[in-house]
Amino acid sequence: MTSSCISSSHCLGSTRTFRARNVSVCSSDVGDQPGAEVKAASLCLSATQAHANRVCVGTTPLGRPSLCLPHSCNAACPLPGTCDIPGNIGTCGTYCEGTMNSHEKVTMQFLNNRLANYLEKVRQLERDNAELETKILELSKCHESSVCLDYQNYFWTMEELQQKILCSKAENARLIIQIDNAKLAADHFRIKHESERALRQLVESDMCGMHKLLDDLSLAKADLEAQQESLKEELLCLMSNHEQTCSLPVGSRPFRP
Fold this sequence. Notes:
structural molecule activity
């Protein structure tokens, strides 16, 4: 942006004695804010109109106010944009009313042109801003649609993987239940085995006792069988003796008390 400064110096008084009054409105560098430049141009226009409508006080030779510019303003203007002001504005000297009105018209025409340029630039910036916003919205919509299209396949894959994970979890739960049941059955069979083992040991101990008893009974049986054989032999002897005795005559039989 440009920086502008418009100064009007009014010299009031006699030929040798001057009282100067300066009115200046400056518009510094405002970056990307065209509204500030428009405001500065409006202030410059208001200052020029106030200068044109001021009350004339002083004793100039023609009874008219003179439009003067300090000597420092005659040098090269250091601010960009102010050198576009026509060169006949602010020249020291005494002018008639018609000449001053022509200068005011030129100044107002110049300010009106700058104001029109600023307004046109503002409108152009607004149009550019609207176009940029439209492009940004279109690009954002395209980006969102492309993102949705790109990630839709991933969403399907994620759903399939989630279904597989759920199936795997159900299978794992079923296997865990089976493992728990197998553990319970193993514990039951282990307890049963231990009880059967204790019972077997008890039966084996009883059988050992019975084997000993059987051996004793076998020995007793053998002894009894031996006694039976001896008794049978004795019985046979007695029977044979009895038969022999019975076969003898009665007088010859031995006497037995």
